[in-house]
Amino acid sequence: MRPIAAALLVTMLAATGAAARDTSPRTITVTGQGEVLAAPDYGTIDVGVTTSATTVAAALQQNNAEMTRMVASVKKAGVAETDMQTTQFSVAPQHPRTERGGEDYSKVIGYSVSNRVTVTVRKIPLLAQVIDAASQAGANSVGSVVFQVKDRDALKDQARTQAMRDARRQAQILAAAEGLTVGKAITISTAMREFGFAGQMAPPAPAPVPQGTPILPGQITVSASATVEYELQ
Fold first, then answer.
1. From CA 208, how far away is CA 227, in angstroms rounded?
2. What sign does the dihedral 103-106-112-115 (CA atoms) show?
3. How many CB atoms are closer than 10 A to CB 133?
4. pLDDT of residue 53
5. What is the CA radius of gyration of the chain?
6. Cβ–Cβ under 8 Å, residues 71 and 85
7. How does pLDDT run across 117-162, given as a tens digit for each residue?
8. Segment 178-185 mean pLDDT
């Protein structure tokens, strides 16, 4: 190929590449945020009984008696048996302490039995009554109060919609500053945050209490983010 023809071909290819780059759409990428608040519909709590004795049989017998009494008390407070589920049961040996504060695993001085259930309370006002009923009936472990909503998907959809609107609003503000307008969305990615409220509670006193355990359900927050790439015009 002659030098002049080769140079001309290189120039044409460079011009073609520049034209291709010029025709590619200009874009902008933003991240929108959405948040929805809702009052919880129901809650769950973990309650349990831990007992100790010198033999497995004695520890089991004591635990079974106290669990039976606790379950009956929770049911009397308004919880259906189908809303109670065993989530943990264990039998473990107990060892004496050493002079350094550790455990001497070569010896066994007794056994510990632990039985825990998760209780679903369908009515928020009943939570305090259920906690008090369980503790006064023998539960020595009460905690992990979690508030929930029935229609989670609806709240998620609302949060995602808000996030998309916020993303477009941001893109329009930035585009207008450059004398441009926002076109169609090219790519979209969303993310949800954990929602709901979980708190740890100290076990109420086993003796009768003059007032119920204070329970503050507050509100559940559902958060979503949407990262969107828009075409600019």
1. 54
2. positive
3. 22
4. 97
5. 32
6. no
7. 999 999 998 999 999 999 999 999 988 889 999 988 999 999 999 9
8. 95
Please give the residue range of the domain that contains residue 137.
Answer: 43-97+107-148
pTM listed for this prediction: 0.68
What's the pLDDT at 58? Answer: 97
- Per-state percent for the chain, helix, strand, coil, to nearest 5: 35, 35, 30
- Tokens representing 170 are 């941001």
Distance CA(55)–CA(84), nearest Å, equals 28
Strands, E, within 54-181: which ranges? 84-94, 110-121, 141-148
Mean pLDDT of the chain: 85
User: Does 15 fall in a domain?
Assistant: no
Give 157: exposed, middle or buried? Use CB within 10 Å, 0-12, 13-18, 19+. middle
What's the pLDDT band for 218 if we cut at 50, 70, 90?
Answer: confident
pLDDT reported for residue 135? 93
Beta pairing, strands 110-121 & 26-38 = unpaired
- 14 assigned to some structural domain: no
Do 57 and 122 belong together in one domain? Answer: yes
HSE of 155, CA atoms in CB hemisphere, 13 A: 22
Q: Which of 20-29, 32-41, 71-80, 191-200 has the lowest mean pLDDT?
A: 191-200
The full length of the chain comes to 233
Tell me, yes or no, whether 121 lies in a domain.
Answer: yes
- Is 11 inside a domain boundary? no
Residue in the block written with tokens 């001497």: 104
